[in-house]
Automatic annotation (TrEMBL), chain A:
Residue ranges of every copy of the Fe-S hydro-lyase tartrate dehydratase beta-type catalytic domain listed in the record: 6-168
Keywords, comma-separated and alphabetical: Lyase
GO molecular function annotation: hydro-lyase activity
Protein name: Fumarate hydratase
Coiled-coil residue windows: none
UniProt family annotation: Belongs to the class-I fumarase family.
InterPro entries assigned to the protein according to its UniProt record, in alphabetical order: Fe-S_hydro-lyase_TtdB-typ_cat, Fe-S_hydroAse_TtdB_cat_sf
Gene3D superfamilies, A to Z: Fe-S hydro-lyase, tartrate dehydratase beta-type, catalytic domain (3.20.130.10)
From TrEMBL, chain B:
Keyword Repressor (UniProt): no
InterPro entries attached to this UniProt entry: Class-I_Fumarase/Tartrate_DH (IPR051208), Fe-S_hydro-lyase_TtdA-typ_cat (IPR004646)
Pfam family, one: Fumerase
Any one GO molecular function term: 4 iron, 4 sulfur cluster binding
Family note: Belongs to the class-I fumarase family.
Keyword Nucleus: no
Residue ranges occupied by any Fe-S hydro-lyase tartrate dehydratase alpha-type catalytic domain in the UniProt entry: 10-277
Source organism: candidate division WOR-1 bacterium RIFCSPHIGHO2_01_FULL_53_15
Cross-referenced PANTHER family: FUMARATE HYDRATASE-RELATED (PTHR30389), L(+)-TARTRATE DEHYDRATASE SUBUNIT ALPHA-RELATED (PTHR30389:SF17)
The protein's name: Fumarate hydratase
Length: 176, 280
């Protein structure tokens, strides 16, 4: 049975997730990447408690479309900002690639998870997005902060709240 | 002399951009379908299935395969018996890129200056490589190269006395370090020999070779096969979650070099290999 989660997340929602599990995410995601993080630092323009951040920026939407193609960007570029946001109650992040040791420590301390979605499947991922609203920094164009409503958005737990890391575990399991 | 208008070049480049952004080449799709049969990790198989599904949706709905629609890299083989009319070649190519990225709702991903980083707004300038060749035709190849994979590329000047094993180690290390950030399954291009810049160019050109077509040199062909096997034993797997499909192909090119050098360049490409070509 694939697990399902929906924000706002509690400690126990997060503690139930294990690295390597598939998780379907519904409800609200906040989309923000480099330029937005640089602006809001540890003070995001929304209440971050229990919420999920999605590191991404879409291609331009075609007329009438909810959003363009949208997929994860490299999460590691946000590492410097992340521990402070975790201290403020951020519970989950969605991106691609590895995270720093500081981020993993802050995740363990604050009970948070890091989820990944494949890069390069942005047309597919856009189908799970039912609504997209710019909530801050429209001047940043594709990097504006958007609130997304998603249904059963397919993710994989990459790093769980105990610090188990699928990139290490997976490599160990399949290297010959 | 055959006369060709640069307007024809603009039109062609525009169409190549439009197609490349949404249509995953057939050789990549075939390789992904093959990988689905051999990938040992269930999570890895699930990711490959998503990549294939994504390609179907992108093609049908003309949606970009990936949100990073890349920097346009254009290879031109210009026949020496062609006379170009109506303007300048590079301007015509950039105009084609600009029109294609606008028309296709593709993301504009070019910073005007590496330090000031203001977006140019139309995904130009493209990186253009022109070669003069015999004949009266123009061959245009366009690769829209994503940043995540490009950033994981590496080059190193080896000693002429370095061994094949040392070079192999460098290639494997580069692929392993590329890891999840480069969006595996990867295509790996290697340029061996030449000088500093030509090794990098060879590595990039190696990515243009269709999957499954091996280097025509017997030794290099054998090396490509054994290296692909070693790469896929690293365990990185699709998106780095562990698995037996880390790369779909490794293509190696080699050429003569100075007696005191042995340059090696490794260019990393993600599975979202946006590549189209045509001949005018
Ligand atoms: S590396 Fe390739 S697949 Fe991954 S996000 Fe960049 S362009 Fe897309």
């Amino acid at each position: 049975m694939t697990k399902k989660i929906e924000a706002p997340l509690t400690d126990s929602d997060v503690e139930a997730l294990r690295a390597g599990e598939s998780v379907l995410v519904s409800g609200k995601l906040y989309m923000a990447r480099d330029a937005a993080h640089k602006k809001f630092k540890d003070n995001p323009p929304f209440d971050i408690k229990g919420q999920i951040l999605f590191y991404a920026s879409p291609t331009p939407s075609k007329p009438g479309a909810i959003i363009g193609s949208v997929g994860p960007t490299t999460a590691g570029r946000m590492d410097a900002f992340t521990p402070a946001l975790l201290d403020k109650g951020l519970k989950a992040m969605i991106g691609k690639g590895e995270r720093s040791a500081e981020v993993v420590e802050a995740m363990k301390k604050n009970k948070a998870v890091y989820l990944v979605v494949p890069g390069g499947v942005a047309a597919l991922l856009s189908k799970y997005i039912k609504q997209a609203t710019v909530i801050a920094y429209p001047e940043l164009g594709p990097e504006a902060v958007q609130a997304l409503e998603v249904v059963d958005f397919p993710t994989i737990v990459a790093i769980d709240s105990e610090g188990n890391d699928i990139f290490e575990i997976g490599k160990k399991n399949y290297s010959r | 002399m055959r006369e060709i208008s640069t307007k024809k070049i603009t039109e062609t480049v525009k169409n190549l951009c439009l197609e490349a952004g949404v249509d995953l080449p057939a050789d990549i799709l075939d390789a992904l379908n093959d990988a689905l049969k051999t990938e040992e990790s269930p999570l890895g198989r699930e990711i490959i299935r998503q990549i294939i599904k994504n390609a179907e949706i992108a093609k049908k709905e003309k949606m970009p395969l990936c949100q990073d629609t890349g920097l346009a890299v254009v290879f031109i083989e210009l026949g020496q018996a062609v006379r170009l009319l109506d303007g300048q070649l590079e301007e015509a190519v950039n105009e084609g890129v600009s029109q294609g990225y606008h028309k296709g709702f593709l993301r504009k991903s070019v910073a005007a200056d590496p330090l000031i980083r203001e977006n140019t707004g139309d995904n130009t300038p493209a990186v253009i490589h022109t070669e003069i060749v015999p004949g009266d035709k123009i061959r245009l190849q366009l690769m829209a190269k994503g940043g995540g994979a490009e950033n994981r590329s590496a080059s190193r000047m080896f000693k002429p006395t370095s061994t094949k094993d040392e070079i192999e180690q460098f290639i494997l290390e580069t692929v392993e370090k590329a890891g999840p950030n480069a969006c595996p399954p990867l295509i790996v291009g290697v340029g061996l020999g030449g000088n500093f810049e030509s090794s990098a160019l060879m590595a990039k050109k190696a990515l243009l070779r269709p999957i499954g077509r091996r280097n025509s040199g017997f030794d290099t062909c054998k090396w490509e096969k054994s290296l692909l096997d070693k790469i896929n034993k690293l365990g990185v797997g699709p998106m780095g979650v562990g698995g037996t499909t880390t790369a779909l192909a490794i293509n190696i090119e080699r050429r003569p070099c100075h007696i005191s050098s042995l340059p090696v360049a490794v260019n990393i490409e993600c599975h979202a290999h946006r590549f189209k070509e045509t001949v005018i």
